[in-house]
Structures are given as C-alpha cells and as structure tokens.
Amino acid sequence: MARGASDITAPAVAVHEVTVTLGGRPILHGVDTTVGRGETVALLGANGSGKSTLVKTIVGLYPVESGRIELFGTPLPSFRAWQRVGYVPQRTTAAAGVPATVGEVVSSGLLTPRGWAVRRGRSDRGAVREALATVGMLDRIGDPVAALSGGQQQRVLIARALARRPDLLIMDEPMAGVDLVSQQAFADALAGLAEHGTTILLVLHELGPLAKLIDRTVVLRAGTVLYDGTPVEHGEEDPAHGHERPGHDHVHPHDTPSEAPGTPECPPGPTPVETLKAATTQATTWKESPAC
Ligand SMILES: Nc1ncnc2c1ncn2[C@@H]1O[C@H](COP(=O)(O)OP(=O)(O)OP(=O)(O)O)[C@@H](O)[C@H]1O
C-alpha cells in the first residue's frame, strides 16, 4: 500500500482537544495526547476516569463530539486501514455460546474488510500458531472457546490481535484475569513487538510486569489528562510531586462487561472490534460495519 508523507512522519495516534459525551453526560473534556511511532504508552487512572472511553473513541466506537483524532496522520473519519490496528477491549464474558474454536477465533484476526483471504497461506497459519504459542494456548487450538476459562478467553483475544501483526496495538486492561506466568509471557511478547517497531497503547491500572516496556504514561482523571510524561507505576500515584493525585477507587481486575447502559451497539465504521462474538461473526460474515 502506498503511504503518503504524513503517514510516514505523523504519530500513530494523535488526539487533539477531544470531547466525548455519552448518554448525555460529558465523559472526556478536551483530551490532548499523542502516541508516537514505535512508542509504548500506558494509559492510567482511577475507575471511571475515562480510559476505556478514550481508547474506544480512538478506534471509532464512540463519536468525537469536538476536537479531532488522527491515526497515522489520517483523520479518523477517513481512516480505512484498520488491518494496521489491533484492538483488544476490556475483558468481557462475551464468549458464552460462541461456537468457534480457538484457532478459528485467532484466524478471524487475519480477516481484511473484504473477507477471508482466498487461500489461507502457510504464513497465516504460522501467524495463528505463533500468536497462540505466545499466550501459551497453542495446545488448545482445536477446542471450543466456550470451554475455556475467562482468563484463557482473554489470552485468545490477545492472540487474535497479535496474529495480525498490527502496526498499532491497543489493549484495554489486557492483564485482567491473566495469571502471573501468562502475564510474564505476554510482557515478553510485547517486548518483542516493541523491538520490531510496533506502537502499543495499553490501558492499565498498574504497570506491573510491563513496567520495563513503557516509554510514557498518560494519567486521566475525570476525563482530562492529569499527567503525560515519564512512566509512573500507578495512576493514583503522584506524578506532580504531591500537588496532584488522581483519585483512587478500589481497583481490581473485573470480569463484567465494561459497557454501561446506553453504549452504542454499532461503531460508526469498520473497526477492529475484537470481542469473541464479533470475531466469530466476522469469521463467516464480515461486513464493512461489524455485525452487531
Ligand atoms: N456507554 C456509556 N454511556 C454512558 N456513560 C458511559 C458509557 N461508557 C462509559 N460511561 C461513563 O464514562 C465514565 C468513564 O468510563 P470508562 O469506562 O471510560 O472509565 P475507565 O477509566 O475505563 O474505568 P475502569 O478503570 O473502571 O475501567 C464512567 O463514569 C462511565 O459510567
């Protein structure tokens, strides 16, 4: 694909004064930040500070009320190169009843908006196996995803995002519900991607095993950027030498879907929606807007 000058020099993600309103309530207020090419950025902040809202807005799932977002230099409304973006949403229980196997779900990450590649190449199969091995799930490749635990399903969704070898990988609390051994394997996998130039944006509550990978942290509080700079371990810690402290609710990995009532059911355009249900639907009927 020919890439223009702005694509080569622009940050992977640029968020300019973005305001988002959901259910009639302003959630993000003039958020301004960027994620440079090859950077690994952690987005931190207390529960409800707007982290998921920001990443969902970046991948086009929520509308921008004012301000603008650019991906690889292209304004979001015109951005079409979603195959360059891998997105893993906050953990959900969306796998219940999904009739696909682990291998099928991960393979669906290789879909293009035009549908399945006509012939599944050896490299595609290799990418699927490699991604599953990375998250320690290769031995479950033929199992139904519905038969997996919540943490294992999360690892399958991570593998799905890794298999497409995206230029930009966005993950919302990828470590939630993932055991310590798998967390370390995942950290090693991300380190490998970062070394090869992948841009990574992670929503986290603490850096934990990922700390050594993080180039920069952005801390949100009540829908605004409280801190943007050298890494801090926790969103609630004081990045401004005691003058500012993001609020800290009791934080723990959660299993429940993140969507509150009023969540738009369909994104505005083709986006890399990576829930297991969407993955399975796309495996058979990819549409320009994912079936929802
Ligand atoms: N679809 C929605 N409709 C209305 N309000 C919403 C919607 N999604 C999120 N919100 C509200 O937006 C605010 C920010 O939520 P968001 O999920 O972005 O926070 P977060 O920082 O990711 O929190 P957590 O750490 O708990 O995951 C919350 O007050 C939440 O209730």
Would you write up a description of this structure?
With 292 residues, this protein is of the alpha/beta class. It has one domain: P-loop containing nucleotide triphosphate hydrolases (Rossmann fold), CATH 3.40.50. Helices cover 25% and strands 21% of the residues. The chain has helices at residues 5-9, 51-58, 102-108, 122-134, 150-163, 180-195, 276-285; strands spanning 13-22, 25-35, 40-45, 66-71, 74-75, 85-88, 168-172, 199-203, 216-221, 224-229. The strands form two sheets. A six-stranded mixed β-sheet has the order 6-7-8-3-9-10, sandwiched between helices. It has a four-stranded antiparallel β-sheet with strand order 2-1-4-5, with helices on one face. The two termini are 29 Å apart. Bound molecules: adenosine-5'-triphosphate. Adenosine-5'-triphosphate (ATP) is lined by residues 22-23, 25, 27, 45, 47-53, 258-260, 262-263. GO terms for molecular function: ATP binding. Residues 13-247 form the ABC transporter domain. This is Metal ABC transporter ATP-binding protein.
List keywords for this structure.
six-stranded mixed sheet; disordered C terminus; binds adenosine-5'-triphosphate; globular; single chain; Rossmann fold; four-stranded antiparallel sheet; alpha/beta; 7 helices; 292 residues; 10 strands
What global shape is seen? globular
Broad structural category: alpha/beta
Low-pLDDT residue spans: 113-119, 237-292
CATH top level? Alpha Beta
User: If helices are DSSP runs of H or I spanning 4 or more residues, what is the number of helices?
Assistant: 7
Question: How much helicity do the residues have?
Answer: 25-40%
Radius of gyration: 18 Å
End-to-end Cα distance:
29 Å
Placed side by side, the strands forming the largest sheet appear as 6-7-8-3-9-10
Q: What is the averaged pLDDT score?
A: 77
**CATH superfamily membership:** P-loop containing nucleotide triphosphate hydrolases
CATH architecture label = 3-Layer(aba) Sandwich
Domain tally: 1
- Beta-strand fraction estimate: 15-25%
Run of helices and strands: HEEEHEEEHHHEHEEEH
Bound molecules: adenosine-5'-triphosphate
